Amino acid sequence: MRFYTGHLKLLEIYFGIAQVTSGSADWMQHENTIVIIVEDDSRTKTYGGARVQIADGVLPLPIETAIGKYDEKIYSYVKKGSAEICGMWNSKEVAGMGIGSQVLARVGVVLGAQLPIDTYHVLCAPITTRVGKRVGFVIDESLGNNGTFFYPKDDFLATAMIINDPYELPYADPKEKLLIADLRENPIQSKIEVGPKGSYDVNYSLKIPTHAHSIM
């Protein structure tokens, strides 16, 4: 709930948008959605988050709902074994630290190795496309206008990106691959992250309980 309210508040502040597909609450009762949250030590203050939603034929991925009316090919692309990193946000309080652009994007890809998936989708705003590329996504030029869509409004550009090998990550930045590999091998650890505004301590707890991803 803290993830949801924080995300919604940010969409309204920055974009004046209350209805975005990744802002929908349908996933809250969805057993194949995993929430990533960044919070303080007391677990009462939320600084950001993201979701990993696994395609299961029950709840459409946000990317299907977002761009299906523009390009129906997305429906055939999303199949069992697909997942999406979506709803990524960070609070204004930590803006510029790299929480959203570095930590959350990396963690989303780290979790892919623990899940029964072979394709990862993401719909990026222009500023996050380079973040997607760094962690291994490539622009899916077969969709829309060379991968781009006007979404969620006519003056916002969104880019569809994809990882076809979530484990090997052949297109990820080499330095980023090392950081991802380290978190995959040691999903529970503390480390100092260096962002644009300096360094900060992060305690990672990235082990997914095995019952949390039993695909129907």
Report on the structure:
With 216 residues, the chain is of the alpha+beta class. It contains 6 helices and 9 strands; from the N terminus they run αββααβαβαβββαββ. The protein has helices at 2-15, 62-67, 73-77, 99-112, 126-134, 174-185, and strands spanning 33-39, 46-54, 82-90, 119-124, 138-139, 148-150, 157-163, 188-195, 198-205. The strands form 2 sheets. Strands 1, 2, 3, 4, 5, 6 and 7 form a 7-stranded mixed sheet that branches. Helix 4 (99-112) crosses helix 6 (174-185). The chain is globular. The model has no long low-confidence stretch (mean pLDDT 88).
* Number of helices, where a helix is a run of at least 4 consecutive DSSP H or I residues: 6
> How much helicity do the residues have?
25-40%
The tally of strands reads 9
Fraction of residues in β-strands:
25-35%
Provide mean pLDDT, rounded: 88
Q: Structural class, judged by helices and strands?
A: alpha+beta
Shape annotation? globular
Radius of gyration: 16 Å
| SSE ordering | HEEHHEHEHEEEHEE
How far is it from the N-terminal to the C-terminal residue, by CA? 24 Å
Low-confidence stretches: none
